[in-house]
Amino acid sequence: MLHLKDIKKSFRQPDGTPLHVLDIPEFHVAAGEQMVLVGQSGCGKTTLLHVIAGISRPDSGRVRIDDWEITLMPEAECDRFRAERIGYVFQTFNLLPGFTALENVLLSMRFARGRPDKARARNLLKRVGLGHRMTHRPTQLSVGEQQRVAVARALANKPKLLLADEPTANVDAGHQQQILDLLRETCREENVAIVLVTHSREVAGQFGRVDHLEDFNRVLQAL
Amino acid sequence: MSIWKIAWRSIQQRALASTLTAVSMALGVALVICVLVVYGVIYQSFHRGGEGYDLIVGAKGSGEQLVLNTVYYLSQPIENISYAYYEQLAEGRTGDPMVDNNVELVVPVCMGHSYRGFRVVGTTPEMFDELTYLEEQEYKWAEGRNFRKEDRFDAVVGAVAAREAELSVGGTFQAIHGQVEEGGKAHKQTFNVVGILEHTGTPNDRAIFVNMEGFYNIHAAEQATAKTAAKHQPVEKPAARTPATEKPAAEHSDEEAEHGDHAEEHADDHAHDAHQQVTALLVRVKKGPGVPDLVAKRINAGAVAVKKPVYVKTGDKLERTVQLVNEAQAVVPARVIANMFEGVVGKIQLILLVMAVLIVVVAGIGIMVSIYNSMSDRRHDIAIMRALGARRVTVMVVILAESILLSLGGGALGLLLGHGLIGALSPAIVKWSGVSVGLLQFRLAELILIPGLVALASIVGYLPAMSAYKTDVARSLQNTP
Q1: Which of A23, B141, B149, B364 has most Cβ atoms within 10 angstroms of its Cβ?
Q2: Cα–Cα distance between A35 and B218 in angstroms, integer?
Q3: Do A84 and B391 make contact, defined as CB atoms within 8 angstroms?
Q4: d(Cα B105, Cα B123) in Å, to the nearest integer?
Q5: pTM
Q6: Count of C-beta atoms within a 10 Å radius of residue B152
Q7: Residue ranges of chain B with pLDDT lower than 70?
Q8: How far apart are CA B275 and CA B213, in angstroms?
Q9: CA B170: distance to chain centroid?
């Protein structure tokens, strides 16, 4: 379902020299598969998620999701594809502060094709246990509730792939498992593949597939 | 969720900054509204005066001064034309068919006196019985009635003049020779107020109208007294004359000014002479395209001529002969008023309007600065939207929509503020100009504000919108606010 081939990504440093971050010959995730990516801080995990989501363009290589090669898409088309096929959960939740919980979910639908499905947005919020908090703004929600809104938002457009960048890093221990269970259960129900980045061994230990970025990123191997 | 709602949420998020920005726009728009309304008031005040008749005929000279003096009762009194001229034109005896067949009504006006700062105008009852004002409205009486031709010392008073000079029906007044500020003295003749005009919104509100026969008689009576007194006193020298501009209009002719030696002779004939002069004639012609212009052209070409004494130099002597003279000019007041308005008021209004528009532009730049300064705080939010699938163009349009909402919101507030201000000042404007302006009286030009504000908002929103367009999503996402 997700197939990366010969992905290279580098950034220009202040002195003009390139900083190589990714050099991945091959990476696969099957449809509905739930896997974890682990690696040291600064090893390029978030950059890899950005490349998969089409937020960053690789210097070379191809990213294919189902039959769509997003590296060949024009930017606007890639944006639309991301809105419709990829869900993204951020470490810091990244809810828009001016919008209510429901509006944050609807906003995600707004950028995909078709009219925002208010009923689905409400159902998703009910599923994550926030049926009574729909009209609350992020500042009126607890950290755990904010991340649950972020999960509902990521699933709003029925994506095929959910990218989660340390979704439990900022959540207290009591809510970590709750968020994780919610993510996995909901994705399983909707047959959504998960690529979850984490530092936590506890979190990684719950997944059947745990990939270490150092194992397939040639940049790190060369260090 | 629409783009507008996303933009509105962004405005709400920065409520204080957004409010201040919108208020600055509101002040600019309110100023534009005030300028437009004041322009409208001045325009109406100007144009209302010259309605109800087609031509003004008066002494040769400046057409503008003739109109200012006759229509608005402003400026110094002009020279006069003879009563015989008035009679020829009014009775259709000019001999020119174009003039005689097309002139419907001639109403004379005589000036040169005042009462408590308001012009006293000698005229005939037709002024109010036959002439109209403002799109053919008939004069109405707030109190009393029009004066009658046979009642020589009856007067009617304009609404403002009546209020400010404290005149009412049954009251009396004595006209002053010239203006008080020019050292004018009160005449002995008393006029009786028989009517107060309803408010018309024209300069007539600020004038006092007396029977022309009585107007002439002010001097006749005093000349008679002077003659009686003169019989008992030796004549020392010709009476010193006040400058022509300060004279009652119906007192002196050009020849007097030029030939001081004949002053005594004129003094003897004064009552008779005065009876032969009017300041101007208000002429209504038959309806038809170009008729006023044709009649004016004929009058200016000399269609009406009167016999006047002319002094011709024969050897060392000046001999007095009588010749046919075209002593008057005819002007179309609507055109003179339009020219004066465009030439003077129009330019001032343009300057005011430019200044007001500049204030709106500065307020627009304020919107740009406000949104642009907020961009560093909002870059993260924009990156989130982009990560959720918003296209570059979408976030750009959101910023432009925000700019437009602030502009239009400020504009709407400015409209309310401007019209509220006008509404509050309405009584003072009516008192000052006679033009009533209502709270909800919109000018057509205000419609330009809507596309104007949208265009301005689009221009000033472009820079921050481009900044949003160029947001580096990956980098901005990593920078947690």
Answers
A1: B364
A2: 114
A3: no
A4: 13
A5: 0.67
A6: 17
A7: 48-50, 77, 178-184, 219-276, 430-440, 479-481
A8: 8
A9: 31
Q: For residue B388, which residues of chain A lie inside 8 Å, CB to CB?
A: 82-83, 88, 107-108, 111, 153
Q: Which chain A residue is nearest to residue B478, measuring alpha carbons? A: A46
Nearest CA among A171, A174, A179, A186 for reference residue A34: A186
Interface of A with B (CB under 8 A): 46-47, 50, 53, 55-56, 75-76, 79-84, 88, 90, 92, 94, 96-99, 103, 106-112, 116, 153, 157
Q: Shortest Cα distance from B409 to chain A (angstroms)?
A: 19
A107–B10: do the CB atoms touch at under 8 Å? Answer: no
In contact, B105 and B116? CB cutoff 8 Å: no
Interchain proximity A92–B13, CB inside 8 Å: no
pLDDT digits (tens, 9 = 90+) for B74-104: 777 678 888 888 988 888 888 888 888 899 9
CB B189 within 8 Å of CB B217: yes
How many residue contacts between A and B have a Cβ separation below 8 Å? 76
Nearest Cα of chain A lies from the Cα of B467 at a distance, in angstroms, of 17
Extract the tokens encoding B266. 């004129």
How many CB atoms are located within 10 Å of the residue B160 CB? 21
Among A12, A110, A149, A153, pick the best mutation site for testing chain B contact (most B Cβ within 10 A): A110
Closest of B246, B247, B251 to residue B220, by C-alpha: B251
Query: By the 8 A CB rule, do B398 and B460 touch?
Result: no
For residue B336, the surrounding DSSP H or E stretch is helix B333-340
Interval A158-179: pLDDT, tens? 899 999 998 888 777 777 888 8
d(CA A80, nearest CA chain B) in Å: 6
Q: Quick one: three-class SS letters along B126-165?
A: HHHHCCEECCCEECCEEEECCCCCCCCCEEEECHHHHHHC
- Chain B residues with CB under 8 Å of A99 CB are 9
Write the residue in B384, B391, B480 that is nearest to A96 by C-beta. Answer: B384
Q: What is each CA distance from B449 to A127, B398, B475, in whole angstroms?
A: 49, 22, 40
Nearest-CA neighbor of A200 among A158, A165, A159, A153?
A165
Alpha-carbon separation of residue B421 from A200, B29, B38, B160, B480 (angstroms): 66, 12, 12, 24, 47
Distance CA B155, CA A135 (A): 76
Backbone angles phi, psi at B430, to 5 degrees: -60, -45
